[in-house]
Each structure stands twice: as C-alpha cells, then as structure tokens.
Write a structure and sequence with these properties.
The chain is α+β, with helices and mostly antiparallel strands. The protein is 17% helix and 25% strand. The protein is globular. It starts with a strand and ends in a 7-residue tail after the last strand. It has helices at residues 28-38, 42-46, and strands at 2-6, 20-24, 57-61, 64-65, 81-86. The mean pLDDT is 94. The protein has a single domain, classed as Beta-grasp domain (Ubiquitin-like (UB roll), Roll).
C-alpha cells in the first residue's frame, strides 16, 4: 500500500531534503518502521526509548489526529496521506 508521508522541515535533512516520501505500510507503527528502513535515524526522532510516539510529535491521517484514533495501531490504506507535525511550544509567560 503506497502511503504519502509529509515530512516536516525539521526532519528533512534525514530524507535528503524531501518534503514528501512514499512508503508501504498498513498501520502508523509499520509506517514508522518503513521510514526507519529507508531513512535511518528517523525512528529515534519519532519515538521514545520504549517505542511510543514522542509527545511532541503528532501524526495526522487524512487530517485526523491519530491520538483520537488508535495511535500507532491506526490503520492506513493505499492512497492515504500521513502528515508528521512537530508540536511547537512557546509564547509569552
């Protein structure tokens, strides 16, 4: 299943500057593993030591936040678009 993955600017040095890549996967967990195979070092940026998605990294499948779906077990299918969006902190105290 070909899934389009939108890569945020902060991670594009790992993908040799590509803003979009295509991988084969049927869940978000498989997608992360596929990204790691193609772009070594990606998984460390997306998951913590226990393999869970880092709190400051958000995944959206066709504009739906996976935190409100099944997290890493969220199903994806051919033609879906997954956006990886780093959380941005800041503001005035």
């Amino acid at each position: 299943m070909a899934i389009t993955v939108r890569i945020p600017t902060a991670l594009r040095r790992i993908t040799q500057g590509q803003g979009e890549v295509t991988v084969e996967a049927s869940t978000i967990g498989e997608l992360i593993d596929a990204l790691e195979r193609e772009f070594p070092g990606m998984k460390d940026r997306l998951t913590d030591e226990s393999g869970e998605i880092r709190k400051f990294v958000n995944f959206f499948v066709n504009d739906e936040d996976i935190r409100f779906l099944q997290g890493k077990d969220t199903s994806i299918k051919d033609g879906d678009t997954v956006a990886i969006i780093p959380a941005i902190a800041g503001g005035r105290g």
